């Protein structure tokens, strides 16, 4: 899949705290012992001997390098360009006639009319629980998934499109979608497309100032939102200059919204009422053309106000055309779990790709994802357990917490269970990394039955593949998911400006640390960046990543200067986007992201430090939930701010006999700081960091950075300048200690 410049991931809740992590259930440790140790050892011995014989007899040299991208001649600035090895030219549409998102959706609905399409869980009960320390938590009891078929969805979309006309939405006016991810979001999007109405997507965690800025800049007249976001709009109504109509999605319990200020002048209607109006007053569809604007997507960005990226129908369709070829055997038999924000290009591209293949899409949320999620009533099922998806998309922050949850559960089990898990893990790791004595064949089946099936049940038990984007995925987490869940991770790279299209790792590629070859809809070119000493003529080739193809967007809304800076059109008419990321081509044509232009800082004595690269290495410390490295030209060393993993630091404190009154107090203790610094030094050394790249002092923070705090983006990327500003005094103190 792809990463983006930024967008909104709702509060990760159970995934940003130690409570409610997607862990093994408490009884899982004992279940590993379903067989007697003697039986296990005998079965293991037989499996190893059998596997050894099979490999010895049938193993052939399969080490020949598979070419995944080929060099090609393209226009534009000099550099080294490659395209996907499977296609002689760039793909632009998934099939004939699917030249816009509206036509792609309609054709899919006609092809799979009776198939499950959009699934939403029934809310059975909503209650509040109070913890021992007096904190209140909302708990939900959710039922089974209720499904809308592709045929029913087409009718509802048609009705909604007609309903927009009935409430006064005029041709050429823009509609904003401002809601959490849910079925109605997708229905509204497709309804707007049937009226050729450009859609402005806004993530739910956007701050008030940025929200008003986005709506006013795009002159939105109609907003579709959920009830929670409706209250934000009402509170901002005096600052919204062009909004005339609001369509709100009903939630239980139903009640009429209260309006005030300028919102009293709005036409306010429920989603179901708009559908009903459209059914009574049908209007002819006005389908868009490929080059018409489909979406203006506002990115959270790491600095300043968000930028609106202007995407045509042809841009997004090109990415979909590429991605349907990237997931092996993608078909209407698959079930996709949707819980990341649809206002993020990663999720929008993923769900549109699923639609093209007739896949069933079941909606969930980060707060109800697993059986142990924060909002799930104890003893009831989370979204993955109920849906049992075959495919899902995740950002690294979520996968890291799944990994940490499993490890914590295994470690707490101790003894034979921990030893058995480690043996199974090591055997599978050898197999994946190419050791011919690794765990394949019958031995693999044995480990699946004894160990990994219990872990795979955390995500429903049927996952056959995962898509990771939004930020770099650590090598350790990628391997852990490969082994424990028995599924490939398609890690990719792209941006909002390229409609998520860039690179995508092929599922038979078991390497880590890379983001795959170019997707079939675009070229990846490396151009030299002399200032950073990266050149495409190096061996291996290095340089700034430039993406060219039909998926490259039209530019930034009402920001011509920035558009001209980042986008170029060559002599052949090919459009290119300059990413600012530094990449390296591997021998087989796959890309590795090795740096970012704006993250490089020159220290006092002339050494260069790449902040993002170093942070990615230091994040491997078990104590690190989030980290920001700080370097500046007036000092010869680096310091860091670290959001600490509660369970890890508290576990160390317990073993070390450290007394503390609260977790905040524990973070202030010199012993804690010393322990975390030692851990950072260790992982830094293992990651081959230079001495000047390892922080000499650190501030431990007990409160997580979430999109709601404004310190990280929707994709959980740190907002460096905001963090520096908020913790300016702490950083200054770190340098003088």
Automatic annotation (TrEMBL):
Protein keywords: ATP-binding, Ligase, Membrane, Nucleotide-binding, Transmembrane, Transmembrane helix
Domain AMP-dependent synthetase/ligase, chain residue ranges per copy: 143-557
Superkingdom classification of source: Eukaryota
Enzymatic reactions: a long-chain fatty acid + ATP + CoA = a long-chain fatty acyl-CoA + AMP + diphosphate
Biased composition, class Polar residues, residue ranges: 1-19
Record-linked SUPFAM superfamilies: Acetyl-CoA synthetase-like
One Pfam family, short name: AMP-binding
Residue spans crossing the bilayer: 40-58
UniProt entry tagged with the keyword Ligase: yes
Annotated spans, Disordered: 1-22
Keyword Signal among record annotations: no
UniProt cross-references to InterPro entries, sorted A to Z: AMP-binding_CS, AMP-dep_synth/lig_dom, ANL_N_sf
PANTHER family (alphabetical): ACYL-COA SYNTHETASE LONG-CHAIN, ISOFORM J, LONG-CHAIN-FATTY-ACID--COA LIGASE
Similarity comment text for this entry: Belongs to the ATP-dependent AMP-binding enzyme family.
UniProt protein name: AMP-dependent synthetase/ligase domain-containing protein
